[in-house]
């Protein structure tokens, strides 16, 4: 795991604290790349009902050339290292410098804002890295009258099926304008949370079985990792509910079509995700309690065995201590006459054995050895 992922985990533990990229006191709107910024790659897809044009690893000249030639222009930017390209793209679509500054801010609070010519959204998108660790990538979306801009901090996303639908002209996406593309992107982000939750649900079931059957196979760190992943998903999903609610309340900017049912359907999926996350969080919290209880019970069993062993040796130690005092039997009739007995050693060992066996039988009948039958 590289430094960027480690920083992400640290921010999760600190409550996703936002750290400004620019120096303290710098001018508002100053664009500074994050310290872990990736190489900038731009993909442009322009389409309409009857045409589609796609440029992978596009230059700013390609973006300028394709503006106005298509009904909808989708510019997807992966990596935020090239500030000059970001500034040039922002100027091309009249994006406010403060909005671009929010794009570059690591771990920005999820939000929705409406400007005169476009809407601006910031949200979290789940992603996987090596080892199966869960992380979220910040996704910034600008939705205008004939364009959609998406900015991601890392390479890779969950929009491959959306691109396939655009290329193949499948469904309504090629004829329903940029607002429907915004819905398609939001729906893809929401759907990408389901596999993560499904995987976490399987982990919780596995941990429950291991805790109840063989708690030695479970560690406190594994349960804590599940709870941390759930917390990260919760921080990514919860703001989506308010964002979708605000989008549904806004009038259509560039399309006469009523897309409210689609955004409400996406809103319902978010509510379902929140319910699942809260359910899994309760299960994970209960799992931690069960784990602590099982570990405590196992420790109690160990202490019980050690206590029984110590209890058995108490009378044996007493007998050995009494007859180890070496009193002279010639000193008087009460000065250990047993020391002169030819069977004294055998009798002493027999008494010790009978004492130990008797105590074991008594412990067994009391149910202190193993499980007591009912």
Notes on the structure:
The protein is of the alpha+beta class. It has two domains: 291 residues, Beta Polymerase, domain 2 (2-Layer Sandwich); 43 residues. Helix content is 53%, strand content 13%. It contains nine helices and seven strands, in the order H-E-E-H-E-H-H-E-E-E-E-H-H-H-H-H. The protein has a seven-stranded mixed sheet with strand order 2-1-3-7-6-5-4, with helices on both faces. A hairpin with a 5-residue loop joins strand 5 and strand 6. Helix 6 packs parallel to helix 8, helix 7 packs antiparallel against helix 8 and helix 8 packs antiparallel against helix 9. The N terminus is likely disordered.
Radius of gyration computed on alpha carbons: 35 Å
Q: Reading side by side through the largest sheet, how are the strands ordered?
A: 2-1-3-7-6-5-4
Which segments are poorly predicted (pLDDT under 50) over 5 or more consecutive residues? Answer: 1-10, 12-16
Q: Total domains, how many?
A: 2
Mean pLDDT: 78
Please tell me the CATH architecture of the largest domain by its name. 2-Layer Sandwich
What is the name of the CATH topology of the largest domain? Beta Polymerase, domain 2
- The string of secondary-structure elements, in order, is HEEHEHHEEEEHHHHH
Helix content: 40-55%
Q: Indicate the overall shape.
A: rod-shaped
CATH class of the largest domain: Alpha Beta
CATH superfamily of the largest domain: CorA soluble domain-like
Which structural class should the secondary elements be placed in? alpha+beta
| Total beta-strand segments | 7
Strand content: 5-15%
Number of helices: 9
Largest sheet: 7 strands, mixed
Q: End-to-end distance, in Å?
A: 54 Å
């Amino acid at each position: 795991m590289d430094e960027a992922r480690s920083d992400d985990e640290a921010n999760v533990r600190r409550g996703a604290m936002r750290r400004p990229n620019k120096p303290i006191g710098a001018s508002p709107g100053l664009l500074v790349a994050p310290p872990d910024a990736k190489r900038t790659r731009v993909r442009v897809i322009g389409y309409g009902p009857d045409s589609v044009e796609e440029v992978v690893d596009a230059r700013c000249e390609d973006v300028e050339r394709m503006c106005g030639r298509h009904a909808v222009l989708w510019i997807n930017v992966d990596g935020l290292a090239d500030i000059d390209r970001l500034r040039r793209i922002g100027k091309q679509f009249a994006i406010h410098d403060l909005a671009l500054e929010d794009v570059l801010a690591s771990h920005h609070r999820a939000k929705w804002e409406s400007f005169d010519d476009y809407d601006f959204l910031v949200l979290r998108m789940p992603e996987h890295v090596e080892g199966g660790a869960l992380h979220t990538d910040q996704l910034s979306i600008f939705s205008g009258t004939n364009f959609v801009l998406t900015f991601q901090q890392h390479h890779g996303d969950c929009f491959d099926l959306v691109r396939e639908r655009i290329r193949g002209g499948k469904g309504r996406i090629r004829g329903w304008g940029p607002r429907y593309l915004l819905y398609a992107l939001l729906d893809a982000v929401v759907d990408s949370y389901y596999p993560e939750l499904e995987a976490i649900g399987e982990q919780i079931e596995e941990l429950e079985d291991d805790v109840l059957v063989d708690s030695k196979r479970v560690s406190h760190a594994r349960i804590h990792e599940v709870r941390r992943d759930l917390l990260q998903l919760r921080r990514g999903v919860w703001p989506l509910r308010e964002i979708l609610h605000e989008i549904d309340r806004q009038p259509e900017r560039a399309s006469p079509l009523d897309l409210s049912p689609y955004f409400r359907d996406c809103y319902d999926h978010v509510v379902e995700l929140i319910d699942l996350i809260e359910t899994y969080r309760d299960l994970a919290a209960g799992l931690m309690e069960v784990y602590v209880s099982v570990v405590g019970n196992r420790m109690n069993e160990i202490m019980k065995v050690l206590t029984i062993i110590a209890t058995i040796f108490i009378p044996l130690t007493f007998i050995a201590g009494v007859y180890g005092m070496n009193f002279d039997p010639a000193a008087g009739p009460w000065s250990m006459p047993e020391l002169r007995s030819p069977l004294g050693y055998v009798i002493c060992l027999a008494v010790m054995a009978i004492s130990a066996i008797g105590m074991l039988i008594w412990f067994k009948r009391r149910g202190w050895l193993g499980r007591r039958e009912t």
